[in-house]
Design a protein that fits this description.
This is Transposase. This protein is of the alpha/beta class and 268 residues long. The protein folds into three domains: 56 residues; 98 residues, no CATH class; 63 residues, no CATH class. Strand 3 and strand 4 form a beta hairpin. The chain is extended and about 90 Å long.
Length: 268
């Protein structure tokens, strides 16, 4: 008579396990030499955490935004006591292990002819006294999908303890091509060197006009925002990149940008 098939989605909870390795020692009856198989390799030398646990901690912290103290509480409910300080040490050591991957990611991002960069403040605790200070994260983006590229996009993050100009100059020392950024003066020496060409960021320009418009709205700022919107609308999407249309947009955009500038500055 056949059968009925039904499905139910269920969750299998992750579980901790202790992997115990026994290594026998043997001695030669004639020469008294003791031999023993080498211990299995560990991600962290003499550490108790296996690769799966380390991956779980790192993923929860950076991909799922779960602080270490919350992870400690989660693990405690499963009967495992792991302090935030212990896991913080693991995070630091994992960062060292992942350095080759970070270097490869940097090389991939910088190997293209166009990079977008922006920096953002991040609060960090100073070693020793534990007082907060402001560091910087420099975000370098490679994404040419809107230009029809099938190469995967990528983002490389670089940390610095301050916003001094030496940091972007160091990060971009081997880069040559178009750099899309805000008007931060630290990038100027890179443009003056000649191997990097400045490409303005319309998002930053719009943000300044938008902030002024929110504080003191006027016909001038409203017109500038409208024209920026029209500029975005004229660009083809990633699924509609046609050479003919792109050329028409490129020819029209310079005049359109000039009109936006005149509207934003009050010049006609």
């Amino acid at each position: 008579m056949g059968e009925d098939v039904s499905e139910q989605l269920e969750l299998i909870k992750s579980a901790f396990k202790v992997i115990r390795t026994r290594r026998q020692k043997k001695a030669c009856a004639r020469c008294d030499v003791i031999v023993q198989a080498p211990a299995p390799a560990r991600p962290i030398e003499r550490g108790i955490a296996g690769p799966g646990l380390l991956a779980r901690v790192m993923t929860a912290k950076y991909a799922e935004h779960t602080p270490l103290y919350r992870q400690s509480d989660i693990f405690a409910r499963q009967g495992v006591a792991l302090s935030g300080a212990t896991m913080a040490g693991w995070v630091g050591l994992c960062s060292n292990l992942l350095t080759p991957l970070a270097d490869a990611l940097c090389d991939y991002v910088m190997s293209t002819g166009k990079v977008h960069v922006d920096d953002t403040p991040v609060d960090v605790l100073q070693p020793g006294n534990g007082k907060p200070k402001t560091g910087r994260l420099w975000v370098y983006v490679r994404d040419d999908r809107n230009a029809g590229s099938t190469l995967p996009p990528a983002v490389w993050f670089a940390y610095s303890p301050d916003r001094k100009c030496v940091h972007p100059q160091t990060h971009l020392a081997g880069f040559s091509g178009l750099l899309q950024a805000d008007a931060y003066t630290s990038y100027n020496p890179l443009y003056e060197a000649g191997h990097i060409r400045e490409v303005g960021c319309m998002a930053h320009a719009r943000r300044e006009i938008h902030d002024i418009h929110m504080r003191t709205p006027s016909p001038t700022t409203a017109e500038a925002l409208q024209r920026i919107g029209e500029l975005y609308a004229s660009k083809p999407t990633s699924g509609d990149v046609r050479p003919g249309r792109e050329n028409r947009c490129a020819k029209r955009d310079p005049d359109h940008c000039s009109s936006i500038w005149r509207a934003g500055s009050g010049k006609n």
